[in-house]
Amino acid sequence: MPARSEQDASVNEVHVIDIEDNIDKPAVIDVEDNANMKTNGQNDKAGDGIVYVPVDTSETDVVINIDNGSLGTTTKAKPVNIGEIVEKARDAFNRGITKPIEWRRRQLKNLLRMYEENYNVMVEVLQKDLRRSKTEAVLLEVDYLINDLKNTLHYLDEWVKPEHPPKTFVNMLDEVVIYNDPYGLVLIIGAWNYPLQLLLLPMAGAIAAGNAVIIKPSELATACARFVADTLPKYLDNDAILVLEGGPEETTELLTHKFDYIFYTGGTNVGRIVYSAATKNLTPVTLELGGKSPTYIDNTVDIEVTTKRILWGKFINVGQTCIAPDYILCTKEVQDKFVECAKKILREWYGEDPQKSPDLCRIINSRHFSRLQSLIDASKDKIAIGGRSDPQDRYISPTIITNVTPADKIMEDEIFGPILPIVPVENAYEAIKFINAREKPLVLYVFTNNDDVRRSITDNTSSGGMCINDTMMLMGVDTLPFGGVGNSGLGAYHGKASFDTFTHKKSCLVKNFAAIGEKLASGRYPPYTEGKLSFISALMRKRHGPSLKYLPYVITFALGASLAYGITVWQKMGSEDL
User: Rounded to an integer, what distance in angstroms lies between the CA atom of residue 443 and that of residue 420?
Assistant: First the structure.
């Protein structure tokens, strides 16, 4: 359900936001009796550190007042002076600590050393929080962080250099420069599904750009949050790079302070809240959100390879991935082939009893498990594969649901679990219509050997990114910025895009006092005349002569040809002398 606007809510209405499951449900609360947290008799599920609703005494409860954007809470947090933390980091930036390239490089090298010296510990905490296998922990988080950081260190000197864009005729005597300035104090709010990568990778980009940083790990991934809080201060500058643990109260208060940039990863509904808080100070943001990422398959593909690639992308981290294939669009004929192939592949991967496989993660907590179980129960007559679960183990087997309709419950929101619905369509045109009738996805996957189909879907849909004939792998290309569009996100990062995200491009024009320049520009001064206007207009007129793009190659070729000719003449003269 989309969030209502402020105009739709009365003074005594709030929205209770489900952070984990990204579900937004309206509730009416007596604001004056807020401590009782009365919610129309329905409790929502818990969230990822900003907004909770009552479930039991072990959880933290927070509500959101739509009218003023404030967050209410019913628990007492561990005393933390957030104001002092924010001021400490801001003071470090204001004193210029973070700006020197030497400081940035030293922090990034220390961060790399932290990864390398705590390699096995990082694998262990991911196993504790998500029962993540070593292979997935290494490939999707630990090595991913290391490789991204090595790339940043390699190109850092190049990225920080001032840029010199092309000049027009009127500025031929001037210097035109774009400086890469840090924003200042950056807040990064991480997520629980990839609790190390989604927190530390943007942090590295913010440090590379010369910012002071406060990071907030997700308290749902408790082992990872504790690891970051305990370990990071041992390696990085404690004045400029700070970790703040906590839940809703701490995040709520953080958002009341002024930051120069906010980077949030999580659900769309909470993204709106973060965005709303940022707009009060006109703070720029990056929102890495999610949504239902579709996968289209036509009848030209290698069905076995296609099935493997889709199942892998869906079931790593048991579907708790923002860019996991959310649903499949294909013909019924392709659907039947996919299901038959999937049965064989899943058996090969996870055995006869997937619950015993060491390669399957677990659902993050019982509330998230219950939400997924309700989706399976609502479609139990359409289950083609899987459907088994164990609430004590928070286990849900890889599940495929066939002949799904747009009206089915599983098509309402992002699934974020190991359930893969298949929606039959007749052709690519129908798939395009289906995709465009919904919110813009974070990623669109297309499996086809038909170039016309590929171009048609690419040209006629909008998504944060696309991957053709595979899933997830676009994340491994550091030259591809990663981010959403519309409901799936705002802004992008990865590789140089991470550096650019946390960098303000400061434009600068440098003029001198040379007499010729002053004479040429003197027509701008009063008294104005037609002659002055004509002269200035002529100077400012855009002129597009022949492109000089290939001039270096032409010069190189000419020099090479001249050298070859000279050698030939010299050899000829030498032979004549003999």
Answer: 16
> 278-282 — which CB contacts under 8 Å span 24+ positions?
280/69
Residue 313 structure tokens: 């992308």
Cα–Cα distance, 23 to 482 (Å, whole number): 24
Rounded to 10 degrees, what is the CA torsion of 337, 339, 343, 345? 70
Residue 465: name the closest of 488, 446, 483 by CA: 483
Query: What tens digit of pLDDT does each residue of 472-521 get?
Result: 999 999 999 999 999 999 999 999 999 999 999 999 999 999 888 888 88
Catalytic residues: 288
CA 33/CA 20 separation, integer angstroms: 26
What residues contact residue 341 under an 8 Å CB cut-off, 6+ apart?
Answer: 303, 304, 307
3 state SS of 419: strand
Q: Decide if 345 contacts 308 (C-beta within 8 A).
A: yes
In residues, how long is the chain?
Answer: 578
Residue 91: what residue type?
Answer: D
Closest CA to 364 of 200, 201, 132: 132
Which range is least confidently modeled, 63-67, 110-114, 424-428? Answer: 63-67
Compute the distance between CA of residue 318 and CA of residue 129 in angstroms, rounded to an integer: 13
Three-state SS annotation for 422-456: EEECCCHHHHHHHHHCCCCCCEEEEECCCHHHHHH
Two tokens at 94? 């204001």
CA atoms of 75 and 338, how far apart (whole Å): 49
* DSSP-assigned beta bridge partners for residue 180: 505
Cα 430 from Cα 109, distance rounded (Å):
51
